[in-house]
Amino acid sequence: MRVKYFLFMAVVFLAVSSCATSPLGRKQLVLFGDQQLEEMALQSFDDIKKEKTIVNDPKITHYVMCVAKHIIAEIGGGEWEVRVFDDEDANAFALPGGKIGVHTGIFKVAKNQDQLAAVMAHEVTHVLSKHGNERASQEMVVQTGLQVGAAVLQTKTQYASIMMSALGLGAEVGILLPYSRIHETEADLYGMDLMARAGFNPKAAVDLWLNMQNNMDGNQPPAFLSTHPSHETRMSDLNKRLNSSYGLYQQAKQQGKNPQCNAERN
Question: For residue 95, which of 136, 137, 128 has the smallest C-alpha distance?
Answer without folding.
Answer: 128
